[in-house]
Specification:
There is one protein chain. With 428 residues, the chain is of the alpha/beta class.
């Protein structure tokens, strides 16, 4: 059938993260040995308390309010009061089937163009373009101290964009960051907040990895810009519940009309989060000792495995800042630019494709996260292991060292061996 598609349809394809996961499943189904570093899915089992709560509420089959169950929203607000000190009386919560819909709904609700730090998560820019908004790139600096966005440079970019006829009104910040595994320091957050307040920019603070911060500190720019910040988060990362598709937004009442508009958007799109999930999720935000211990134990494992990957890549001469949270590394193969060029690799897409074809290792190209095509960066996820076995081993007292990886996360060790062989071959 010959029909006319919307003009933005040729600007993006299947989400690179989901495409990578589907590639792995397809190749493994064919019996091919694949090392999966392309998809950031926390591998640990569902906590027993939350699993039981879901089973106990399986009978709940009625639609719930578009904003979400009142008890759930109140529980989330009080949990975040403990995390970042927000006043529950000054905020409202909306729930959704995954935080991705919260981010999309917010972009839809707020008129204007998106300020997007680069690199950033793969879906921010496509969502903006689907809505007809322009994407204004904000450069960042990555190093062992973190993910840096210069406040003065941000202000210059805002002013310059307006001079070009653009309308920057919102920025999405993600820390710890996907794809880098790095976070934004409190001092930098404060300076960014000051600029956003001064320039009337809405901050969409994507804090989905906030509870997977390796130093145990939960950071939120909402402390510095409470009236300008919407917090977005969910369960997929710190509680390994990606497939449950639960996310939420915490919206200041001072932003007139935003919660009502988000409620309207929800009513015309996702209606509500499945009822049994909402009742079960209440348990995730009550501060139960067993849940909080689970979060810490999983975070300890993410920290050890992903910092191990970074140290090993750095040992091989690859630029790889030590991750500070989440479950990612963002190595830069610039030191091997000439050697890579000699075998026809000049872009991150070519580098990722070569590692899959020649070594059976799935990664994501830096270009998928907004980096220039000619950069030689990759995003690597350190989650290719049996989470239940790894968690049980750690909780039974096994020491987190290289032998732990060999015994309990052999695909992670194999990935390092692959990179070592790859670098050796480049040096020949």
């Amino acid at each position: 059938m010959n029909i006319e598609l919307n003009k933005f349809s040729n600007e993006f394809e299947l989400s690179p993260t989901l495409a990578a996961n589907e590639t792995v499943l397809r190749l493994r189904d064919k019996g091919k040995p694949i090392i999966h570093m392309g998809f950031g899915q926390a591998p640990f089992p569902v906590p027993e308390r939350i699993k039981k709560a879901l089973c106990d509420n399986a009978y709940n089959n009625k639609y719930l309010p578009a904003l979400g169950l009142e008890e759930l929203r109140d529980t989330i607000l009080h949990y975040y009061n403990g995390l970042v000190g927000i006043d529950p009386d000054k905020y409202q919560v909306i729930t959704a089937p995954g935080s991705k819909l919260i981010l999309y709904g917010l972009q839809m609700a707020v008129k204007g163009d998106l300020l997007m730090p680069v690199p950033s998560w793969v879906s921010y820019a496509p969502q903006a373009r689907m809505l007809g908004d322009e994407v204004i790139r904000v450069p960042t600096k990555l190093d062992d101290a973190g993910y840096h966005i210069g406040a003065d440079q941000l202000k210059e970019i805002i002013i310059s964009a307006r001079a070009r006829g653009l309308n920057p009104t919102k920025i999405i910040l993600n820390y710890p960051s996907n794809p880098t595994g790095l976070t934004i320091s409190d001092n930098d957050l404060k300076e960014i907040a000051e600029i956003c307040i001064e320039e009337n920019i809405l901050i969409i603070s994507d804090e989905i990895y906030g509870l997977v911060s390796f130093d145990g500190e939960y950071r939120s720019i909402s402390k510095y810009a409470p009236d300008n910040t919407v917090i977005s988060s969910g369960l997929s990362k710190h509680l390994s519940l990606g497939g449950w598709r639960f996310g939420f937004g915490i919206i200041p009442k001072s932003i007139n009309g935003l919660t009502d508009l988000m409620q309207n958007i929800a009513s015309e799109t996702w209606s509500c989060v499945p009822s049994p999930v909402q009742y079960a999720v209440i348990e995730a935000y009550k501060g139960h000792e067993d849940i909080e211990k689970y979060i810490k134990d999983c975070c300890d494992i993410h920290c050890f495995i992903n910092q191990y990957i970074a140290k090993e890549l750095s040992r091989l001469g690859v630029i790889c800042p030590l991750p500070q949270g989440g479950f990612y590394n963002y190595p830069d193969f610039l030191p091997y630019q000439n050697e890579l060029s000699n075998i026809g690799i000049k872009t991150s897409q070519q580098l990722s494709a070569y590692l899959l074809e020649e070594y059976g290792l799935v990664s994501l190209a830096g270009a998928s996260f907004g980096a220039e095509p000619q950069t030689l960066t990759l995003r690597l996820s350190g989650c290719d292991y049996d989470g239940e076995k790894v968690l049980n081993a750690y909780q039974s007292g096994k020491e987190l060292n290289e032998q732990f990886i060999i015994d309990h996360a052999p695909n992670v060790k194999e990935a390092i061996c692959i990179f070592e062989g790859f670098i050796v071959n480049l040096r020949k």
